[in-house]
TrEMBL record, chains A, B:
Protein name, UniProt field: Glutathione S-transferase
A GO term for molecular function: glutathione transferase activity
InterPro entries associated with the record: Glutathione-S-Trfase_C-like (IPR010987), Glutathione-S-Trfase_C_sf (IPR036282), Glutathione_S-Trfase (IPR040079), Glutathione_S-Trfase_N (IPR004045), GST_C (IPR004046), Thioredoxin-like_sf (IPR036249)
Organism lineage string: Bacteria, Pseudomonadati, Pseudomonadota, Alphaproteobacteria, Rhodospirillales
One GO BP annotation of this record: glutathione metabolic process
Domain GST C-terminal as annotated: residue spans: 89-222
Transmembrane regions listed in the UniProt entry: none
Amino acid sequence: MSNVGMRTLFHLALSPQSRLVRLVLGEKRMEAHLRAEPIWDRREEFLAINPAGEVPVLVEDDGTTIAGATPIAEYLEEVCPEPPLLHGDPAERAEIRRLVAWFDRKFDREVTELLVGEKVLKRFLGIGEPSSEAIRAGHANILIHLDYIGWLAERRAWLAGDRFSLADVAAATHLSCVDYLGDVPWERNAEAKDWYARVKSRPSFRPLLADHVSGLRPAKHYADLDF
Amino acid sequence: MSNVGMRTLFHLALSPQSRLVRLVLGEKRMEAHLRAEPIWDRREEFLAINPAGEVPVLVEDDGTTIAGATPIAEYLEEVCPEPPLLHGDPAERAEIRRLVAWFDRKFDREVTELLVGEKVLKRFLGIGEPSSEAIRAGHANILIHLDYIGWLAERRAWLAGDRFSLADVAAATHLSCVDYLGDVPWERNAEAKDWYARVKSRPSFRPLLADHVSGLRPAKHYADLDF
């Protein structure tokens, strides 16, 4: 590794799981060298680090390696508890983790994979054209998810309760990838839009808004805080 | 709820995620009233408890509700730390969590969904016949996963290190559901088989081996500790 003495994050710009780790690092003001990993190349060196062949992977300067968004987030919370992103008593932490799992699994499967996966990842993987059926399903499913976010945001200051938490990070990073493609119908739910505007304006979010994937221009309003 | 003063776990017998929670409860000697939830009926009362409509869901006697296998496992570890299933320093805990995520996501997608999902869940959901293509893929994928388990078990006492952990629980519960169908080719990897025999003989595993899904007889060797 060329960056001795520095934490390295193997990531991809439009991977919500990678973005989740970048946001956690940003919130905790921890630095890391970002290294884009073209997972479709299945580099042997990278597979030796993470046999799952997926990003994100965090490598500490002592060689400690942590793979997967949730394991990395839990790890960072343990080594750097302030500011907390998994706060409260066990029941409050469980509610945060429930919502993280909701976005990491359900939103991922019902929206992100069908839109970002079809339109972006499939191209890099070279596994054919986007399926218009999948994209249609993704567009339909996102409406339900926006309404659920709006429902939560109407009842709570942040998605899991009174404080900004890993639940907001998970939700916002998935939405931000879909938003890069211009596929979030913000007019659908004013509460969800207002919540996203609040996350988007956090300093930790700024680097995500500066992302540019080669050959794929972000939607016009993507980096606009007043969208 | 009829069982006042008692923890309730909404579950399904062949859901590996539900089994994970049952094993964690068993290891920690915590009691819970098990309630089979036919998620395909989408009962309104259940959707009010968990809008994702999925099992497992744990309801404490004070009404605290926790949804999702990993959130429940993390919660149980916090309220009942002994015996620990997420032990060690942050890096060791990260390795346990990496493997839990491996089975919860990768094994689930590449094996469990293609075998248990196609053969069992599809029938209950009434969404058509099992896809023979999916089942073929599941049979091919499980070989790679057995080899990975064997590779880990050859190098470590348990999958994540020196001690039995949530990683062993996650791996064994997925395998146990596939094994109910008789679809684990144990002859493939002796180390993986030996590791599974050790998990299978734990007292916490016994209730899982007694499971019988109506209309679906378990494979002959399913409950056999000397398979």
